[in-house]
Specification:
This protein is of the alpha/beta class. β1 and β2 form a beta hairpin. α3 crosses α4, α3 packs across α8 and α6 crosses α7. The strands form 3 sheets. Strands 3, 4, 5, 6, 7, 14 and 15 form a 7-stranded mixed β-sheet that branches. A 6-stranded parallel β-sheet has the order 10-9-8-11-12-13, sandwiched between helices. Strands 1-2 form a two-stranded antiparallel ribbon. The chain contains 9 helices and 15 strands.
Length: 352
């Protein structure tokens, strides 16, 4: 346990009320699978800003929000899952945050954060904490969409890259945080990637490994994507980013394709979005979701990411933009920045 037993957190007491910085408990009895860290940086996601103004039925207030955190291990549980980590390790983790249904120790936006070992990855010294926080939620979402058994169920990525399969995957929103990870993961698993983004980000996604890029604003984007993926075998569609209705064009791609592809969705699937014959499913990995328990988490966080970063085979993408104000006091500024909209970058807050 940390010698300093005090802990401050960024509390959300309800929706549409100002957040507050105040004391929070530190969990003292760690179980197998628990990893307690001292935060070095936090990453912001659109969902963090969204949850300040929209109530979801499973949320319990007050809560400590946030999913993306990097820092230094302070204590670990006694079982084998926790013992993969040592005090002093530099790590990054996906804190299940608001989805933990009342367990405030697991929210990211605090000075001492309780992580699950299956959602925690060791970081090489070459990666700063602010760079590391681009990964957790985006990596978990992309990883489960591509490799989770209830989604596209592709073979896992390999260090050094898997042999080319000659097949493709379609990723909608490749310049987003989730999309940036999805492109790199799909390429490491041996698949060609067709993706969409705005025209200004074409070079960015090509630099991540995308093979074909389409402007999502084009009136013919659905037909253009279908024409490309139907040149060969496509293994599925992943809606990685976009507004609430971004699921619709992805389902249209599946419907118009001769292959009738499964659609994994980072957004909830609106009623009526999927035409008859198209299967579309929301990728959810919160506290009561599957993300902690799937082998996918263990492989992606525990095996693939640390080695790929150490070998320089995986890029920090999108690059973090660190807000000027540090510590918990900088989180609201960062969330306000996210709410205004960002493209091909991740907003981060450094502890100091």
């Amino acid at each position: 346990m940390p010698a300093d037993s005090t802990n401050r957190a960024f509390w959300q007491d309800n929706i549409n009320v100002p957040s507050a910085i105040r004391e929070a408990p530190i969990l003292s009895d760690l179980e197998d699978g628990d990893v307690l860290i001292k935060a070095g940086a936090w990453g912001m996601n659109p969902v963090d800003a969204f949850l300040q103004v929209v109530a979801l039925p499973f949320l319990k207030y007050p809560l400590i929000p946030g999913e993306d955190v990097a820092g230094t291990v302070e204590a670990v549980g006694t079982g084998p899952a926790s013992q993969k980590f040592n005090v002093g390790d530099r790590v990054v983790g996906y804190a299940i945050g608001a989805s933990s249904r009342g367990n405030v120790a697991r929210g990211a936006f605090q000075e001492h954060v309780l992580l699950d070992a299956n959602l925690t990855a060791k970081m090489p010294d070459s990666i700063s904490f602010a760079e590391a926080v681009v990964f957790p939620l985006c990596m978990a979402t992309a990883g489960h969409a591509l490799f989770g058994r209830d989604y596209l169920a592709l073979p896992y990525p390999r260090i050094g890259g898997a042999p080319r399969t000659g097949k493709s995957v379609m990723i909608w929103g490749g310049a987003s945080g989730v999309g940036s990870n999805a492109i790199q993961l799909a390429k490491a698993a041996g698949f060609d990637v067709a993706t969409t983004c705005s025209a200004r980000n074409f070079e960015y996604v090509l630099g991540l490994g995308a093979d074909k890029v389409f402007d999502y604003k084009s009136a013919t984007v659905v037909d253009d994507v279908v024409a490309e993926i139907d040149k060969g075998v496509c293994v599925g569609v992943f809606q990685a980013a976009g507004p609430f209705d971004a699921v619709v064009p992805c389902c249209q791609v599946s419907h118009k394709s001769k292959q009738k592809l499964f659609v994994a969705c980072a957004n909830a699937v609106p009623e009526g979005a999927a035409p008859e014959g198209v299967e579309a499913k929301f990728v959810f990995g919160g506290g009561d979701g599957q993300v902690i328990y799937y082998d996918t988490s263990r492989v992606i966080f525990g095996e693939f990411l640390p080695k790929a970063l150490e070998r320089g085979e995986y890029k920090v993408a999108p690059k973090p933009e660190v807000v000027p104000r540090k510590g918990l006091e900088g989180i609201q500024e960062a969330l306000d920045t996210v709410r205004k909209g960002v493209s091909a970058k991740k907003i981060a807050v450094e502890v100091k």
